Amino acid sequence: MTAGRVWFVTGASRGLGRAFTEAALGVGDRVVGLARDVEPLAGLAGDRLLALPVDVTDRDAVFAAVEVAVEQFGRLDIVVNNAGTLHMGMIEEFGEAEARAQMETDFFGALWVSQAVLPRLREQGSGHLVQVSSIGGLGGHPMTGMYSASKFALEGMSEALAMEAAHDLAFDLSRRRMATCEAWEAAEHAVPQPPGS
Ligand SMILES: NC(=O)c1ccc[n+]([C@@H]2O[C@H](COP(=O)([O-])OP(=O)(O)OC[C@H]3O[C@@H](n4cnc5c(N)ncnc54)[C@H](OP(=O)(O)O)[C@@H]3O)[C@@H](O)[C@H]2O)c1
Question: How much is the pLDDT for 171?
Fold first, then answer.
């Protein structure tokens, strides 16, 4: 086992979460990777990867996973709240189950992970909590309104959390904000123009 940093990545099996996972393993760090189906992580298996089949919407399972992670690797250095889903549709037409599912993963999942890891980071006196938001967390767009709702909730919760924990944990919200604003401006320029304009 290496003495590298320990990552805790939700949604580690594909997309952005997998990229974080592969990058961390690539520099010799250890990763606790969560997904409901961890089979796609099988190819990365090794003693520096602990793949845990966890649904982040299950609060008890998330707290248990953090316990297992610390038992196995001793600490948590970088926690990435990445697991997310995108339920598309017009707000008017969303069914209850789909609307709740959007909030359950992108907001509540991140909330449970944040609550589970913060005491550990505080105890260690170090660590990073990375909340993966979206351009949808800064504005609403047709067909992705429920996704925006979940990311707005994540942004608001994270902003408050940063203030509440500021006395003993350092948060760098300004950099996150700057990065998302730049992305927002870039997207504004990318909005399709009407024909002939
Ligand atoms: N892709 C983009 O263009 C984009 C842009 C801005 C922001 N983002 C954000 O970036 C994050 C990752 O997006 P992505 O496109 O990389 O997603 P993705 O390719 O669809 O992968 C989602 C990951 O999350 C896991 N996941 C989903 N629901 C889960 C649950 N309830 N519990 C545990 N794991 C769960 C999935 O595995 P299982 O299905 O096996 O659970 C998978 O590993 C999301 O928060 C998304 O909102 C993405």
Answer: 58
Cβ of 39 below 6 Å from ligand 1: no
Catalytic residue list contains 133 = yes
**Predicted confidence (pLDDT) per residue in 24-54, tens digit:** 999 999 999 999 999 999 989 789 999 999 9
For 74-108, how does the pLDDT look when each residue is reduced to its tens digit (9 = 90+)? 999 999 999 999 999 999 999 999 999 999 999 99
Residue nearest to atom 48 of ligand 1 (CA): 134
Q: What is the CATH number of domain 6-190?
A: 3.40.50.720
Instruction: List the chain domain ranges.
Output: 6-190
- Enumerate residues 6+ apart whose C-beta is below 8 A from 21: 7, 9, 12, 31, 33, 41, 44, 49
CA of 74 to the centre of ligand 1 (A): 26
CA-to-CA distance for 139 and 162, rounded, in angstroms?
21
d(CA 182, CA 197): 25
